[in-house]
Amino acid sequence: MSRPRWLQFLINLGLEFWLPLPLIGVFFWLSTGLIAHQVLSYTYDTTAQIHADSKHQIQFSVSLAVMSIEALIERRDKLTEVKVYTADSVLKQMEFEFPVTEFAQVDAAIAQALGLPVTAVKQLIRYRIEN
After folding, report:
1. Is-contact 130 75, C-beta < 8 A?
2. Which of these, 14, 62, 85, 117, is most buried using a 10 Å CB contact count?
3. Which residues cross the membrane (predicted)?
4. Model pTM score
């Protein structure tokens, strides 16, 4: 049984192997696109809900190397915004908000939140007051 000339020519060129590759590639491209679309468009039902208005107390079990503390006292709003800068590679900055405006109360609140003595907080803190 003899093969047609064009088929024999393709066999001699080695195209018998190379011709199906683009078809296989297009098949994989289309099928993975459909699978990705199905996965990404699937809606997930959550059983647990997150309450954003709840407050959590965080205790630091690892001692932090505090570099500086900046406190912005806003007398009009009767609160103090505090930024704590650390030397830790992962936790560079922490922000707190306290409902006090007196220096001694701010020092005590920061010392309690960070687990530091009040004298250490007094050495590291810098105040700014806004009326």
Report:
1. yes
2. 85
3. 6-30
4. 0.54
